[in-house]
């Protein structure tokens, strides 16, 4: 913006100066020419009494003296054809003046001033003075240089003023941009000091109001999450007590583990909601151990619903840049989708392998597949998108977990029918 404002001011200044200085320069030249002509005319007028009354010898002396003093070419043409002073041809201007008409004309040597002198007994005499071109333009070049320097100085002053004005505009805009980036990076205490024109001050106030409003909304959201956690802990505690009262130790252990997992998930959600700047991929987890544990958990339900489970698990540990709680939630979401969206008895397969340095989790079922039209639409992995009456958050949870480790989520139609979900968990980490 500063460069554009400077260019605009420079263009306007140059055009304005051209509009004023060019006529002024022409006026300076005209004034110089008129001044030289007036001086020559005055000198010629001083010879009129002498030429009109004196003899030839006196006229010659006076003319030579005037020529020496003025440095101009002075000639007097008497009626009998005698030329006194500087020898010169009888020009058309001289011939016209001999008829009694004084005038000023241009010649090759400069400006020619001729004056008719009447009253002599022998006829009309003519005084001719030539103003050289150097005298006509004396001082013009210097005046033009002064005008040019003045124009350059004015342009520089205009640029300096424009640059200062641009800084007063650019500085608040730069501050607005910096604060907006800080807000985007979750620095919600960033604020703008209103400065600059009224419009920019209004924008700064609006941005500060927006930041304050975001802080209020986040505080409300965190409090709601905390309230939710408080409400969930009571039924979780009751569930754990009920599990401990079961007679079958295996059932008690299984239900207690499920309650503990649910409590960990709730605690993780609360902690994540209260983070100011999440750091995806900061913690590593063993994908092999987590997948094996979650498949074993869901295998009990699969057995109850008559589903055959196929597990192809690469030898661990397979460390990925996804927190354990997030990866557990992602695996549960994918396996839960199989049970929620396929009929009982539908087999499914889970495969975890390291391919080309990446860890790839594949969950494939032999169900009816997705009925949202040809291909796998991108909307299937958008948050809240579902055509089966569910919340639509399962695939989004898995996608976010994959992105936390630098991977992605892919949906495909299985070769034998059904749906195949590929969760790329990012590059495998060193132990």
Brief sketch in words of this structure:
It catalyses: ATP + protein L-histidine = ADP + protein N-phospho-L-histidine. This protein is an alpha+beta fold and about 425 residues long. It has helices at about 1-55, 55-70, 90-95, 135, 140-185, 200-245, 250-275, 285-305, 325-340, 395-405, and strands at about 75, 85, 105, 110-120, 125-130, 285, 310-315, 320, 350-355, 360-365, 410-415, 420-425.
Topology:
Layout: H1 2-53, H2 56-70, E1 73-77, E2 83-85, H3 92-97, E3 103-107, E4 110-120, E5 123-132, H4 133-136, H5 140-184, H6 198-244, H7 249-274, E6 285-286, H8 287-304, E7 309-313, E8 319-320, H9 324-341, E9 348-355, E10 358-365, H10 394-404, E11 408-413, E12 419-427
Parallel strand pairs: 7-9
Antiparallel strand pairs: 1-2, 1-5, 3-4, 4-5, 6-8, 9-10, 10-12, 11-12
Helix pairs in contact: 1-2, 1-5, 5-6, 6-7, 8-9, 9-10
Strand order of the largest sheet: 2-1-5-4-3
Which geometry do the CA atoms define? rod-shaped
> How many helical stretches?
10
Structural class comes to: alpha+beta
Major beta-sheet overview: 5 strands, antiparallel
Q: What are the secondary-structure elements, in order, as H or E?
A: HHEEHEEEHHHHEHEEHEEHEE
Strand content: 15-25%
User: Low-confidence parts lasting 5 or more residues at pLDDT below 50?
Assistant: 276-281, 372-380, 383-391
Percent of residues in helical segments? 55-70%
CATH architecture of the largest domain: 2-Layer Sandwich
Main location: membrane
EC number: 2.7.13.3
Membrane topology: Multi-pass membrane protein
Domain HAMP: 167-219
């Amino acid at each position: 913006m500063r460069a554009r404002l400077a260019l605009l001011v420079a263009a306007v200044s140059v055009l304005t100066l051209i509009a004023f200085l060019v006529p002024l320069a022409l006026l300076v030249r005209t004034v110089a020419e008129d001044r030289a002509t007036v001086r020559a005319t005055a000198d010629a007028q001083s010879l009129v009494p002498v030429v009109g009354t004196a003899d030839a010898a006196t006229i010659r002396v006076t003319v030579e003296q005037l020529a020496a003093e003025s440095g101009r070419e002075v000639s007097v043409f008497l009626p009998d054809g005698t030329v006194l002073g500087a020898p010169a041809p009888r020009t058309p201007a001289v011939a016209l003046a001999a008829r009694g008409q004084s005038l000023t004309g241009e010649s090759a040597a400069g400006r020619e001033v001729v004056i008719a002198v009447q009253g002599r007994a022998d006829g009309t005499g003519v005084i001719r003075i030539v103003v050289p071109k150097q005298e006509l333009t004396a001082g013009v070049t210097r005046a033009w240089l002064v005008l040019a320097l003045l124009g350059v100085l004015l342009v520089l002053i205009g640029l300096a003023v424009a640059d200062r004005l641009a800084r007063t505009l650019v500085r608040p805009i730069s501050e607005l941009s910096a604060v907006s980036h800080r807000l985007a990076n979750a620095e919600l205490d960033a604020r703008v000091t209103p400065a600059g024109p009224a419009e920019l001050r209004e924008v700064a106030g609006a941005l500060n109001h927006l930041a304050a409003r975001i802080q209020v909304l986040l505080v409300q959201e965190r409090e709601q999450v905390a309230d939710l956690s408080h409400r969930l802990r009571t039924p979780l505690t009751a569930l754990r007590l009920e599990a401990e009262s079961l007679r079958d130790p295996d059932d008690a252990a299984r239900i207690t583990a499920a309650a503990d997992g649910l409590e960990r998930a709730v605690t993780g959600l609360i902690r994540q909601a209260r983070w100011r700047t999440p750091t995806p991929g900061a913690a590593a987890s063993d994908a092999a151990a987590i997948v094996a544990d979650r498949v074993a958990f869901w295998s009990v339900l699969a057995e109850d619903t008559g589903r055959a489970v196929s597990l192809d698990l690469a030898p661990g540990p397979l460390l990925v840049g996804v927190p354990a709680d997030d990866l557990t939630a992602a695996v549960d979401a994918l396996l839960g989708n199989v049970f929620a969206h396929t009929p009982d008895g539908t087999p499914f397969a889970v495969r975890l392998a390291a391919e080309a340095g990446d860890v790839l989790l594949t969950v494939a079922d032999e169900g009816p597949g997705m009925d949202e039209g040809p291909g796998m639409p991108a909307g299937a992995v958008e948050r809240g998108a579902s055509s089966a009456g569910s919340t639509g958050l399962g695939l989004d949870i898995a996608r976010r977990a994959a992105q936390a480790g630098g991977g992605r989520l892919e949906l495909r139609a299985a070769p034998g029918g059904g749906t195949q979900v590929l969760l790329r968990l990012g590059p495998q980490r060193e132990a």
